Amino acid sequence: MKREEIRDSIGYNIHVTSHLLQNVYNEKLGEFGLTHAQARVIYLLAVHGQQSQSDLQKKLYIQASSMNGIIESMLKYDRIAKKPSPTDKRTKMITLTGTGHELYEKIIDIISVIEDQVTNGLTKDEVESLVPVLRTMQENLRPTDDKKVKK
To answer: At the top level of CATH, which class does the domain 37-103 belong to?
Structure first.
């Protein structure tokens, strides 16, 4: 691929879009003292309920040290609670607090606003065809271990 063609590549354009989208999320979430990663934790806990810290880490595709920082920050502001698992005391279970549940509702509103912004100028058909294509690309890039678990 020639240098001048990089701007026309799928990977480049997805990366730029992702970067811009992350910036918009961080700006809007920052109004509530949240980062994008913290919002994702709140979303996962609200939708799927209590989970182990290691399960959250896997779902977020981040390192343990990054997960620890996110958890500690969220604990500090009473957005989550952490307790030992009833079956394995070494495993830490994470759950939302009342504050976390309140933030979840705000996060859903923010997602709706950003979805409207990012899809502005696209037809309904374009949006509906784009999502499956992006999911296929995500699946193509997932670590091999994740593919085995998903099937």
So the answer is: mainly alpha
3-state class (DSSP) for residue 40: helix
Per-residue pLDDT of the chain (151 residues; tens, 9 = 90+): 676 688 889 999 999 999 999 999 999 999 999 999 999 999 999 999 999 999 999 999 899 999 999 999 999 999 999 999 989 988 989 999 999 999 999 999 999 999 999 999 999 999 999 999 999 999 999 887 655 545 4
pTM: 0.81
DSSP per-residue string spanning 70-86: HHHHHHHTTSEEEEE-S
Single-letter amino acid, residue 23: N
Residue 75, classified by CB atoms within 10 Å of its CB into exposed (0-12), middle (13-18) or buried (19+), is middle
